Records
---
Amino acid sequence: KQEVTQIPAALSVPEGENLVLNCSFTDSAIYNLQWFRQDPGKGLTSLLLIQSSQREQTSGRLNASLDKSSGRSTLYIAASQPGDSATYLCAVSLWTSGTYKYIFGTGTRLKVLA
Amino acid sequence: KAGVTQTPRYLIKTRGQQVTLSCSPISGHRSVSWYQQTPGQGLQFLFEYFSETQRNKGNFPGRFSGRQFSNSRSEMNVSTLELGDSALYLCASSYGQGNEQFFGPGTRLTVL
């Protein structure tokens, strides 16, 4: 059974720091992996999508990497800003039992201090 | 291109009532998934529809049901509401199954 874990559950950093958020999954047979951010009480905003054949994706100050063999993905945020404060979730998509399923991690709550 | 829209944004109901939530996906997207999010349980998958057919279902009681129309718009219905159904209900659309998901703003349901 695929499980997705995000550590740490919460993180507080001063503004300007570079930081790394981690996402681990137990089954390497994924179709893709997606990173989201969620602001309190709001929907999820898609940040980056990495296909299973890719190693990384970049968007602005964000860089996500994927290592299927070790079951890990990292989201790198450069020069963090207070506006980056949110909960970050990763989700894997996999083919199982004749259909695609999305499995979400429990998220990392990030607070960037001004 | 318009994003995923959900209506209503907020709902207050009493126990025993039923509720219908609506989701309009991004134009051209044929897959719609529904999730329930609570502080204690996190994000839990309810069901997924693709081309008007339910393709996937999570571990929720039969009180939770859904459907998808020919224009890909989807509705979910919860009957005989319980206090524990209070949650943020999120809808996500994607072009096809397994593809990148885009979420709507959610419907906040409060059951009194």
---
Amino acid sequence: DAGVTQSPTHLIKTRGQQVTLRCSPKSGHDTVSWYQQALGQGPQFIFQYYEEEERQRGNFPDRFSGHQFPNYSSELNVNALLLGDSALYLCASSLGAGGGLGEQYFGPGTRLTVT
Amino acid sequence: AQSVTQLGSHVSVSEGALVLLRCNYSSSVPPYLFWYVQYPNQGLQLLLKYTSAATLVKGINGFEAEFKKSETSFHLTKPSAHMSDAAEYFCAVTPKGNSGAGSYQLTFGKGTKLSVIP
């Protein structure tokens, strides 16, 4: 059973460019959350997708956008990249339906460097 | 807004010694609490979680944490450190009342890097 996968592993972009990061959730999961982890910091919540809609959003500008596909995979898009966007971007999947506090399973992340 | 404070960005212990990683939360209502571990170049792995059942929570790899409402704390402990425990540890919270499993957003602390000295 494959866990959460993310691509690419590493990425180098120039200021002002746009980037797309991809995430495939763990089998059976329908909810995808994205987090940004700057160097030396804890992850910060960007947004969450469920049933192809953004369900929750953290304190991030509109330059950060996302999408969820019918197969539950997700993309994170960042426009007009800034140096401060350099970070590890983590995707977490979970089961959105039903009760209880289901575990969020994290992928290995995509390391984005903006130069 | 909820927040998490992890005391000590870096903790060193000798192999076989007690591990104690501190976490305090700020919330008007006791939240759900989590501890995650992150090994180099890997994602986060859940160690344990507190969901208002037992206040002493046992997790994987011999770790446990105790929820103390009066101290707004959720410290992580392990009786005897192993070399394989060297990693970064994150405490996280989410407010109670979120509907639907997996629909919550986590607020993380800044992390504590644990070094184990042979």
